[in-house]
Amino acid sequence: MREACQLVVEAHQLVGGMVAPGVTTAELDRAVEDLFERHGAQPLFKGVPGTVPFPAVTCISVNEQVVHGIPGPYELQEGDIVSVDTGCRLNGWCGDGAWTYPVGKIDEVKSRLREAGQTALRTAIHGMGTRKKWSQVARMIERGVNREGFSVVEDFVGHGIGKEMHEDPEVPNYDSDDFDERDFPIRPGLVLAIEPMVNAGTGEIRILDDHWTVVTADGAPSVHFEHTVAMTREGPVILTEGLGQ
Ligand code: MG
Q1: Are β-strands 235-238 and 227-232 bridged in parallel, bridged antiparallel, or unpaired?
Q2: Residue 98 sits in which domain range?
Q3: Distance, CA 177 to ligand 1 centroid (Å)?
Q4: Of 58, 74, 183, 194, which is the most exposed, with the fewest CB atoms less than 10 Å away?
Q5: Could you please report the per-residue DSSP string of 173-225?
Q6: What integer pLDDT is reported at residue 176 of this predicted model?
């Protein structure tokens, strides 16, 4: 899994170096597709079933787009934030990671939002090593985000990951009354894709007519940070270490 995850990190380093005004989201996607092909890795996002199968190897979501944006002719502009999410299977094992990049100079809200999203992910990983149940971690994530005046998205969650990209359990970033049924103990051997989505406004979302792109209901910007993390006897290990650097 570490090898698959490190290829995801490499994809992000490639994309992170390309992000600039005038670059299209399709160009970013193409670069990742070529990288996976060169390494004989199977892209995990392309062909994911839906009303229409997902058409690309990355999800690229700009500004008010939360997740699942479809790469295309859109040219990045100074002041945008762009969330890139991708995953691959290498030698039978999966890796998954997302990061929100600034395009040139971004405004203060977007800047604070990126900080809050990264803090949420760090909090989650720290909590994985110090708490016994995921519900306790999820509470920490949500409280931290709310303290900054932002909201977590509840309609989409993280997931277990292994030979398949999406495995049990579901990994929410919020606390709720019905958590008991979905709660799970944090034990060595557990590998999670932890992926808080943080909105500047409310946590409400809607889906565009392309059947995939998730946007904030109020049009405020959103960020998405994801690591694949393995729980070991020595504590959590970030398999996608290096992502976003
Ligand atoms: Mg994921």
Answers
A1: antiparallel
A2: 2-238
A3: 24
A4: 183
A5: SS--TTHHHH--B--TT-EEEE--EEESS-S-EEE-TTSS-EEETT---EEE-
A6: 80
Distance of CA 191 from the midpoint of ligand 1 (Å): 12
Q: Rounded to the nearest whole angstrom, what is the distance from the C-alpha of residue 194 to the centroid of ligand 1?
A: 7
List, for residues 92-147, the tens digit of each pLDDT value.
Answer: 999 999 999 999 999 999 999 999 999 999 999 999 999 999 999 999 999 999 99
| pTM confidence score | 0.97
Find all residues with CB under 8 Å of 71, minimum gap 6, and list them.
24, 25, 26, 28, 29, 56, 58, 60
The answer as to whether 188 is a domain residue is yes
**pLDDT-derived band at 76, boundaries 50, 70, 90:** very high
Residue 244 lies in a domain: no
We report the CATH number of the domain holding residue 143 as 3.90.230.10
What spacing in Å lies between the alpha carbon of 196 and ligand 1's midpoint? Answer: 10
Average pLDDT, the chain: 97
CA 228 to centroid of ligand 1, rounded, Å: 8
Q: How many domains does the chain have?
A: 1
Quick one: what percent of the chain has pLDDT higher than 70? 100
Q: Rounded to the nearest 5°, which phi and psi values hold at 123?
A: -60, -45
Q: How close is the Cα of 193 to the center of ligand 1, in Å?
A: 5
Q: Ligand 1 centre and the CA of 117: distance in Å?
A: 15
Residue 243 lies in a domain: no
Strand partners, 87: 96
